[in-house]
Design goal:
The chain is mainly alpha-helical. It folds into 2 domains: 213 residues, Rossmann fold (3-Layer(aba) Sandwich), CATH 3.40.50.620; 79 residues, Tyrosyl-Transfer RNA Synthetase. Helix content is 54%, strand content 7%. The chain has 14 helices and 5 strands. The strands form 2 sheets. A 3-stranded parallel beta sheet has the order 1-2-3. It has a two-stranded parallel ribbon with strand order 4-5. Helix 3 crosses helix 13 and helix 4 crosses helix 8. The chain starts with 8 loop residues before the first strand and ends in a 5-residue tail after the last helix. 40% of the residues are buried. The structure holds tryptophan. Tryptophan binds next to strand 1 and helix 8.
C-alpha cells in the first residue's frame, strides 16, 4: 500500500469476557473501526488480561472466538490491518517485565481497577496489580501513536505514558514513543438498562448480537419513570434518548422527541422505536456474525496470520529495549 510506512498507528484491545454489548460497541469498537481509514490499526483480543479473572479454558476460547467474529462482522479489514490474540505474541510478557522493573508498586496501587477490587474485598492476585503494566506493554511494544479506548481505560493509557517516561529517563528519550489516549467526546458513557454505565458486572447490558426477540426483550426492560401516558416526556437525557441518539438519524430523533413532548405517547412507544433502530442498524452485521462464528477454522486462521504481523511490528521495539538493557540481541 502506498505510503503505508508513514501512516500513524492506532492500537486497542478488548477483553474476552463474554457477550459483547452495545456499550462495548459504541464506546470502543465502533470508534476504533473508524480509524481504519487514516491509521494502521493494531487491534487485539486481550486474553492475557482476561486471565486475571477468567480461568476456564472453554469459556476463554468461546469468548475469544465470539470477539473475533464480532470484529470481522463489524467490518475490521484484517488484510490491511493487524488483528490478533494477545497470547499469540507472548513477547508482550517479556516487555511487561522490563516495564515492571521501572515501575513503583505505590504507583500501581493508585489504579482505579486495583483500588475497586480491594475495596470490594475481592481476591487481588498479582495479575490485577500488574494489569496496567501488561497493558502498557501492549501499547508501548507496538510503537503506537493513538489508543482509542472507553473512558474507563483512560487512566491505564496515562499510566502507560508514565511508564514510558520512567524508562526513557534512564535508557534515553528515544527508547519508547509516548502514545495518546483518544476518547470520543460523544460516546463517553453508554447507559445500561438501569441508567448506570452499561456493564456486564451490573447485569444491565444490551447484547450486540443476539436474536431479535432477545434484543427486543432487553430494550423493553429499560427502566423508565412512571409519567402517565398523556403527560409530556423529555427524550433528552433519558436512557432511551441517549441510546436512540446513536442509532437514529437526526430527523428520527427530533420526531420521537416531539411526539413524547406532545404527550399521549408512552415510553413503551419510544422503546419500540429504539428497538427498531438498533435492529436496523446492526441487522446485517448480526447475520455476518453468525456466519463467521460457525467457521472456527477461519477465525483461528485470521488470528494466526494477525499474530505473525504483530510479531513483526513489535520486533524493532523489543530489540531496542533489549539492547539498551545490556541484554543479548
Ligand atoms: N484493559 C482493556 C479493557 O479492559 C483491554 C486492553 C488490554 C487494552 N490491553 C489494552 C485496551 C491496550 C487498550 C490498549 O477493555
Amino acid at each position: 500500500m502506498a505510503g503505508k510506512g508513514k501512516k500513524l498507528r492506532s492500537l486497542s484491545g478488548i477483553r474476552p469476557s463474554g457477550n459483547v454489548h452495545i456499550g462495548n460497541y459504541l464506546g470502543m469498537i465502533k470508534p476504533a473501526l473508524e480509524y481504519q481509514r487514516e491509521y494502521n490499526c493494531i487491534y487485539f483480543i486481550a486474553d492475557m488480561h482476561a486471565l486475571t479473572t477468567l480461568k476456564d479454558r472453554m469459556l476463554m476460547r468461546q469468548y475469544t472466538l465470539d470477539l473475533a467474529a464480532t470484529w470481522l462482522a463489524l467490518g475490521l479489514d484484517v488484510e490491511n490491518h493487524i488483528f490478533f490474540r494477545q497470547s499469540d505474541v507472548p513477547a508482550v510478557a517479556e516487555y511487561a517485565w522490563y516495564l515492571a522493573c521501572f515501575t513503583g508498586v505505590g504507583f500501581l496501587e493508585k489504579a482505579h481497577a486495583y483500588k475497586d477490587a480491594k475495596a470490594a474485598n475481592k481476591e487481588v492476585n498479582h495479575g490485577i496489580l500488574s494489569y496496567p503494566v501488561l497493558m502498557a506493554a501492549d501499547i508501548l511494544m507496538y510503537d503506537v501513536d493513538i489508543v482509542p479506548v472507553g473512558k474507563d481505560q483512560k487512566q491505564h493509557v496515562e499510566m502507560a505514558r508514565d511508564m514510558a517516561g520512567s524508562v526513557n529517563a534512564v535508557l534515553g528519550d528515544d527508547t519508547i514513543k509516548l502514545p495518546k489516549p483518544v476518547i470520543k467526546e460523544e460516546v463517553k458513557t453508554i447507559p445500561g438498562l438501569d441508567g448506570r454505565k452499561m456493564s456486564k458486572s451490573y447485569g444491565n447490558e444490551i447484547p450486540l448480537f443476539c436474536e431479535p426477540k432477545v434484543l427486543k426483550k432487553r430494550v423493553m426492560s429499560i427502566k423508565t419513570d412512571s409519567t402517565p401516558l398523556e403527560e409530556p416526556k423529555d427524550l433528552d437525557g433519558s436512557v432511551i434518548g441517549e441510546l436512540y441518539a446513536h442509532f437514529s438519524t437526526d430527523e428520527e430523533y427530533a420526531d420521537l422527541k416531539g411526539r413524547l413532548k406532545a404527550g399521549g405517547v408512552g415510553w413503551g412507544h419510544a422503546k419500540e422505536d429504539l428497538f427498531k433502530a438498533i435492529d436496523r442498524s446492526i441487522g446485517e452485521a448480526r447475520e455476518r456474525y453468525f456466519e463467521y462464528r460457525k467457521d472456527e477454522n477461519l477465525l483461528e486462521d485470521v488470528l494466526r496470520r494477525g499474530a505473525e504481523k504483530a510479531s513483526l511490528a513489535a520486533a524493532p521495539q523489543l530489540e531496542r529495549i533489549r539492547e539498551r538493557l545490556g541484554f543479548n540481541v
